[in-house]
Amino acid sequence: MRAFLISVLLFSQALMMTIFSPPARAEVTQVDVVYPETSQSHQVLQLTGTVEARQNAELSTQQSGLVAALYVEAGDKVAKGAKLLTLDDTLARLSLAEEKANVESAKVALAEAERLYKEVLALSKQKVVAETLIGERKAGVAGARAELAMRRASLALQQEVVSRHTLYAPFAGVIASRNADLGEWVSQQTRVFNLVQQQELRLNLAIPQEYYGRLANREQIPVTVTPDFTDAAAIEAKLSRLVAVSNNQSRTLTAHIDLPREANLVAGMSARAEIKLPQSRENLVWLPKSAIKQHPDGGASIFAVVDNKAKRFLVKVVRQQDGKVAVSGAPQNQALVMSGIELMREGHELKINSVQGQPL
Question: Which residues form the CusB-like beta-barrel domain (predicted)?
């Protein structure tokens, strides 16, 4: 019983000390703050696209046959009209020779028909030739002329067949691939070469459909293109074309940006595009990178000092330049924390160590 009373007494004493003792002071975090620079800028749509050629053709022959000669390899640059491939045209040339002979025969037949006609015309003046014979000879001339015209058409047809045994480049470009070898049988469905134009390139982008209203029926929309390779210079261009048909799976629209010839790019490369959205300006705040807290989901936030406590603001990173980050959504004319933000939480007590910049 005595032990029980002692326990109750000790518990009561501890409870009284807890109630009447002064509250523990919250931990204060010392921080450096900055009054950031502000600027106005167009809202920018950032996308990654693929450089493509205006002309990118899978070439096939116009006749079936065996490959007799190859004049180019993958990687070769060719001019428009350059000879690329020849099929075995032996049979076609024999048929061509036959058609040429048929034309010569038709010429001889026409000459003979005309001679006979002239002969009866001369005799008709002496009234010794029947009118029927004159008509027959005249019809013979007309028939011979028709035969010659038909033979000439057959000759032209066979000449075209022979010429179609050779494949020519339809435009200037580079041979991206060759898919046939000597002695191989190819048909009109065989993709023999892939020819890619090099001089006229464009950047192909997929624009989210929610931006269609801002970009449709607009002209001279500025775009900054940055190739995805080391030391690449930015290229200033314009939005050339917006295809007003949305993909029913990705819900995006195709856009083309024509690239200058001196861009030093090749088809298939990737590049980033920054499209300045028309009639859309936003206030940007420039902060040191140390002031940005990155989230696992890709978002970002900053902390402002409000009544000596940390207040969190969600921001959107717009661009980065020279060690600084431009964000939108930051409060105006507030001291922003730029040190120790990794473990900072909303409501932390703060003590300012140093201040950069001046409030506006």
Answer: 203-276
CATH at 213: 2.40.30.170
Side chain identity, residue 239: L
Q: How many domains does the chain have?
A: 3
Which residues is 258 bridged to in the sheet?
202
**Domain ends where: 141, 164, 187?**
164
Structural Rg of the chain based on CA atoms: 43
Structure token pair of residue 332: 């105006």
Q: Are residues 270 and 186 located together in one domain of the fold?
A: no
Contacts of 132 (CB under 8 A, 6+ apart): none
β-pair partners for 342: none
* In a domain? residue 19: no
Cβ neighbours for 337, distance < 8 A, ≥ 6 positions apart: 31, 32, 33, 291, 302, 303, 304, 305, 310, 344, 350
Q: Are residues 215 and 316 in the same domain?
A: yes
Say how far residue 253 (Cα) sits from the centre of its chain. 12
- Convert the pLDDT of each residue in 93-148 to its tens digit: 999 999 999 999 999 999 999 999 988 888 877 777 788 888 899 999 999 999 99
Task: Quickly tell me which residue has 């890709």 as its tokens.
Answer: 298
Domain residues for the domain of 308 are 34-53+200-356
The whole-angstrom distance between residue 124's C-alpha and the CA centroid of its chain comes to 80
Report CA 329 to chain centroid distance, whole Å. Answer: 32
Give per-residue pLDDT as tens, 199-244: 899 999 999 998 888 888 888 899 999 998 878 888 999 999 999 8
The C-alpha atoms of residue 355 and residue 335 are separated, in whole angstroms, by 8
Give the three-class secondary structure for 256: strand
- Which backbone phi and psi does 47 adopt, to 5 degrees? -140, 160
Among 179, 198, 217, where does a domain finish?
198
CA dist 198 and 31 (Å) reads: 55
